[in-house]
Known about the structure:
Chain A has helices at about 30-40, 105-110, 130-140, 145-150, 150-155, 165-175, 185-190, 205-210, 215-230, 235-240, and strands at about 1-10, 15-25, 60-65, 65-70, 85, 95, 100. By secondary structure, chain A is of the alpha+beta class. Chain A has a five-stranded mixed beta sheet with strand order 2-1-5-3-4. Chain A has a two-stranded antiparallel ribbon with strand order 6-7. In chain A, helix 3 runs antiparallel to helix 6 (about 165-175) and helix 6 crosses helix 9 (about 215-230). Chain B is mainly alpha-helical. Chain B starts with about 30 loop residues before the first helix and ends in a 9-residue tail after the last helix.
Amino acid sequence: MAEVTMRVWRGDANGGDFENYTVAQNEGEVVLDVIHRIQATEAPDLACRWNCKAGKCGSCAAEINGKPRLMCMTRMDTLPEGPVTVTPMKTFPIIRDLVTDVSFNFAQAEKVPALLPPPMPENGYVMFQEDVQRGQEFRKCIECFMCQDVCHVIRDHEGNKQHYAGPRFFIRYAELEMHPLDTNDRRDLIREDMGLGYCNITKCCTEVCPEHIKITDNAIIPLKERVVDAHYDPVAWLGRKIRRKTKRSASDAAVQPAP
Amino acid sequence: MSTTESSTKVVLGGTRGGPDVATLRQDRWWIQPVITVSILTAFVIYSTWAAFQNRYYYVGANVGRDLISPFYSPCIASDCVPGAKAGFAFNGWALSPALLILIFPLGFRLTCYYYRRSYYRAFWWSPPACAVSDAHSSYSGETRFPLIMQNMHRYFFYAGLVFNTLLTYDAVRAFRQPGLGYGVTVGTIVLVINAVLLWAYSLSCHACRHLCGGGVKSFKAHPIRYRFWKMLTPLNAKHMNLAWASLVFVALTDVYVRLVASGALTDYKLF
Lengths: 259, 271
């Protein structure tokens, strides 16, 4: 049985440091298995979140050798030789050891204006498969918040948290904006209050997404293009005026809260 | 504008976990920025030099060819060499004709979503790589001047389509060999490949994908735009590859035309 040295961050809001643990490592194990072995043998007070061990709950997100990853989906044999560094997600305040306070994300989630469908027609709402498929990609999100963690807009600039929703919520906004039954127009909100312009498309969110959602290409850039439609494109403005189509004009249609 | 009232407030501050270092990454994350800086710097130096040369940009009837460098097409200065001149000209322009037109392809690439990703990472270090600290103490992204001008991308896209059309015309004209009839030379193939790559790069652009169909709320209600969107989506996935391929090839095309025009190379006729 091989042994591995794990450098694990131990501490809380009052400070912390790395502690080294040399433990056994079996073939096929993932980082979470080894963290659990440390808990079982050397440090029963080591705090870490986990739940499904199948990459579907998003609880065990941490930074392994400096990169945001799910501990339950990172096989030990894919990591380079030498000590393995495990730290909590950097963007969020630490609670203890590998556990962080991700309530920033819950606050952002509450700000999202909900779907606002038109009055129910006689034969009910109809949504076609083409339109269902488009939003389906965004529904794969497991809310591990690694995209939020790696986004330098808030990772390196704490103050931006006040006016930046982050990639996880941009996919939510994109899903709603692309929903054929939604009558809300969130483009002003996304631009002014949710800070879409802060994103400089470095695609780190896409790189770390464990569900391989094309966050930048399929959500953030389409949202940026929708904002361009509403605010920076005189041809689109003229088209709306000629066709007297003000329904989708961001300045004319206010975001309405959910009924 | 109203949103639902949030009961959970965004709380700033709080002690973060982990050491206060720029990164804990152990892989060679710096390789990608180094490659980007090397290629883009080489391209900028070469294209600037080529744009100011104002010679050897056209291979004409004197050698039975009709090849023009993409850096100089359309040639709209009054002192363009005979044969290269476009239908109209700016009289009194004393500098290189390339300087009149290069702002459009340059603007298209500068505001391109892929290149933005690349140069923000490689040149501005904002951030240099994922999970590596931003090199700046404050950050406003693309919310203020000048970076808010990145929203002009779709206008450069429109201009790019005009240039692609003109460069396609140049490629078709390259089949013509004044005094010899029609045929295919190495130069013809070079110009055709250049035009194809530029079209592929432009059509794979995110703005194009949005304008063709991505901007609609319902695909079912816009079946033709949906079909366009479906065709462009796989191309869009190759945008990075096409961005690099078209950038390098446009420079190589200029090199080839320059070498032939200066007499350093013969443009061989294939058939």
